[in-house]
């Protein structure tokens, strides 16, 4: 648990360092990997049914990932890939929506990513990151869709592409699973339960692979955008 928590802090420190003017990492692996996604992603259907979610009894997991239990889901569709910068640019142009954190507009009207001490042109095919839950929710509604619940996300996980580009906002409040038991102390998860924090799933390019389990439940305030957060949309079938 201590090792996993320290690995999470590495990502948190990078989030904060990006907000320091002029900061630039000295190692290239601290840059997002190359990726290319369409503006209109393919969707796939998940049938209604009873599904198991949560971490198994054996192996390491945080208390909020347990116990493993069954949930009943209605049929839904979910985007195979995360939302792209190009799609988010269209959303901004049509709605006047707020840009992601670290996006800045040049004198010629183009947008650049000013994170990590640089000014790189926005690449339309890359996944949009550094968005708040409110921005993600507004984007999904603009696209005629919605954010998936965390249960839907976990059930669909095996068929999703682009997982790990950015933490993916869900519609779910951070709440205990049925039968939750605090470990090793109540304040680790329990103090954050309620409607104040939203659940994110998947992991980002800056998340250590030992942390990014399919059952891992990240959480943050809906207004936060300094985290490496992305968008994936869903809709009722």
Describe the structure.
There is one protein chain. The chain has one domain (2-236): Alpha-Beta Complex (paralog of FGE (formylglycine-generating enzyme)), CATH 3.90.1580. The chain has helices at residues 2-17, 85-95, 133-142, 150-156; strands at residues 43-46, 49-53, 69-73, 76-79, 103-105, 111-113, 120-121, 167-174, 194-201, 218-221, 229-230, 234-236. Strand 6 (111-113) and strand 7 form a beta hairpin. 19% of the residues lie in helices and 22% in strands. With 237 residues, the protein is of the alpha+beta class. The protein is globular.
How many structurally independent domains?
1
Give the CATH H-level superfamily: paralog of FGE (formylglycine-generating enzyme)
What's the Cα radius of gyration? 18 Å
Work out the helix count: 4
CATH architecture type: Alpha-Beta Complex
Q: State the total count of DSSP E strands.
A: 12
Quickly give the structural class. alpha+beta
Q: Note the run of SSEs as H and E.
A: HEEEEHEEEHHEEEEE
The biggest beta sheet is recorded as: 4 strands, mixed
Distance between the termini: 39 Å
Strand order of the largest sheet: 10-9-8-11
Portion of residues within helices: 10-25%
Q: What would the principal axes of the Cα set say about the shape? A: globular
CATH names the topology as: paralog of FGE (formylglycine-generating enzyme)
Low-confidence stretches: none
* The first-level CATH class name: Alpha Beta
Q: What's the rounded overall pLDDT mean?
A: 93
Percent in strands: 15-25%
């Amino acid at each position: 648990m201590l090792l996993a928590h320290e690995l999470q802090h590495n990502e948190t420190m990078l989030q904060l360092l990006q907000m320091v003017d002029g900061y630039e990492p000295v190692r290239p692996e601290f840059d997002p990997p190359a990726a290319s996604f369409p503006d209109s992603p393919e969707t796939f259907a998940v049938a209604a049914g009873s599904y198991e979610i949560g971490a198994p009894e054996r192996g390491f997991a945080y208390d909020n990932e347990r116990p493993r239990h069954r949930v009943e889901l209605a049929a839904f569709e979910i985007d195979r890939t995360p939302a792209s910068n190009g799609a988010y640019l269209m959303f901004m142009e049509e709605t006047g929506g707020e840009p992601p954190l670290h996006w800045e507009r040049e004198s010629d009207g183009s947008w650049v990513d000013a994170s990590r001490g640089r000014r790189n042109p926005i690449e339309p095919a890359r996944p949009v990151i550094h968005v708040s839950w409110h921005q993600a929710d507004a984007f999904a509604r603009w696209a005629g869709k919605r954010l998936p619940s965390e249960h839907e996300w976990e059930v669909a996980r095996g068929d999703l592409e682009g997982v790990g580009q950015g933490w993916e906002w869900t519609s779910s409040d951070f709440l205990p699973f049925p039968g939750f038991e605090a470990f090793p102390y109540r304040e680790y998860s329990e103090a954050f339960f309620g409607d104040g924090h939203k659940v994110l799933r998947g992991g980002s390019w800056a998340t250590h692979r030992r942390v990014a389990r399919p059952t891992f439940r990240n959480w943050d305030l809906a207004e936060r955008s300094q985290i490496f957060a992305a968008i994936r949309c869903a809709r009722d079938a």
